[in-house]
Each structure stands twice: as C-alpha cells, then as structure tokens.
Amino acid sequence: MTRRTEWPDSAVGAGPGPGAAGRTDDSASESAYGPEAGYGTGSGGGFGEGAGRRARSRSRISGSPSSSRAEKGEPRDPVEQARNICLRLLTGTPRTRKQLADALRKREIPDEAAEEVLSRFEDVGLIDDAAFADAWVESRHHGRGLARRALVRELRTKGVDSTVIDEAVGQLDSEQEEETARELVARKLRSTRGLDRDKRLRRLAGMLARKGYGEGMALRVVRQALEAEGEDTEGLDEPF
C-alpha cells in the first residue's frame, strides 16, 4: 500500500509550478520553458527571472530541518530524500517524469517513495511532460532549426509518451518546416561559394538531413537556392 505523506504547501514551492496553468496558458509555458529562458540553446538552459525566484525558494526548502538532521547523521526518510533530489534537479531546467524517475532509481530511492513524490510533483505542476514537449519543440525548431523527425527522436530519448510527442510536433506544419529549411540554407549558402555545384549540393543537403529534413524537401530547397544564385541545376531533380 502506498504511504501518503502530508505535504505542506511550502514543500513544493509557493503556488503551482511550471506548466501548472495548463497548455492553454501560453505565457506561463513560455516563461518557464521557452527560448528566452535559454531552453535548448545553452549548456543546460534555464527558466529566466521567474525561475530564479523559484530556484531561491527551493534553496530555502533544502535548508529545512531535514537538512539539519542529515548534518547530524540522522537517517532520512526516503520520501524526503526523493523530494529533495527532484527539487535540486528541477532547479534551473525542467525535466520529464522519466528523467527524474531514472535519477531516483540511480540513487536507490525505493520505488514506492519515488512514485509518491513524482505523482505529487505532477499534481502541483512541477512535472509536466506535455509542457516540456511543447517548449522543446518551440525552442529546438526556432533555435536550432530541427525538423519534426529530429524532434521526435530527441523527445523519445527523454521518455516522453508517444501521444504527447505527436501533439507537440503537431505544432509544426510542412510549410513552416520548409520555410525554416530555406532559412538554414540561406545562412549556409555563402560559405559554400567557390565550391563546385555537386559539392555545394551535398554540403547543404547534408546539413538539412542532420537536422531531420527529408530527402525530397532538402533537395527542393537546395536546388531553388542554387538556382537563385545562377547555378545550373539541370539533373538535380534526382535523389542525391
């Protein structure tokens, strides 16, 4: 039987966490997970100013009486340990439920205690895989130019459910994806000048392929970019 622990409001921060407002609250998702927070664009990302306040709040939490008990060498409750581990991991960057579950398992937290804490954190919005996936797609597409195929692959490695992934990548339609591919090629085009046509084609198309764009779209976008520069693209309709 799962042991229930009384959770004072202060145990998980003041008020709902990132994503608690639901997927309809765009401002909440953007402030907690969006590109302006450095999400997916730096070494570890971050939450922004609002998250800084949450991080300080969580730091105060970690200085609770339980810390004093630990300093005295007294045994700590596994639920309390799991809670503190999750709070530390969530400071500065959002994480999926699976990422946190893996971290608790690695630290040998009993499954019962881990499940209780993870479920509670989901209830209050500190864990929100749907918000995580939405923000990941927004940030990685606009920040790195990744196509849907690459985004799906990345979200799977983070343990996001397939249904949630499908909804998140559904934000991108084929027209938006192709427009991003054109922007990527336009930025890279200048560095390929002076190379022969086939080498330019391979370099530009290869760049798009690594970002998850399909062969047909990559060939079309590159061919049109080369034509705009006056390159003879005869024979480039065949798959590369």
Describe this protein's structure.
Helix content is 60%, strand content 0%. Mean pLDDT is 76; it is low at 1-72. The chain has helices at residues 26-33, 49-62, 65-71, 78-90, 97-106, 111-124, 129-144, 148-157, 162-169, 174-189, 197-210, 215-228. The termini are far apart. The chain has 240 residues and is mostly helical. The protein has two domains: 9-129, no CATH class; 174-228.
Describe the SSE topology.
Layout: H1 26-33, H2 49-62, H3 65-71, H4 78-90, H5 97-106, H6 111-124, H7 129-144, H8 148-157, H9 162-169, H10 174-189, H11 197-210, H12 215-228
Quick summary of this structure?
This protein is an all-alpha fold and 240 residues long.
Record keyword descriptors for this entry.
60% helix; 240 residues
- List how many beta strands DSSP finds: 0
Total domains, how many? 2
**Sheet with the most strands?**
none
The first-to-last residue Cα distance is 59 Å
Strand content is: under 5%
Structural class: mainly alpha
Question: Which stretches are low in confidence, meaning pLDDT under 50 for 5 or more residues running?
Answer: 1-72
Task: State Rg.
Answer: 23 Å
Q: Portion of residues in helices? A: 55-70%
N-to-C order of helices and strands: HHHHHHHHHHHH
User: What's the shape?
Assistant: elongated
Counting DSSP H or I runs of 4 or more residues, the number of helices is 12
Residue-averaged pLDDT: 76
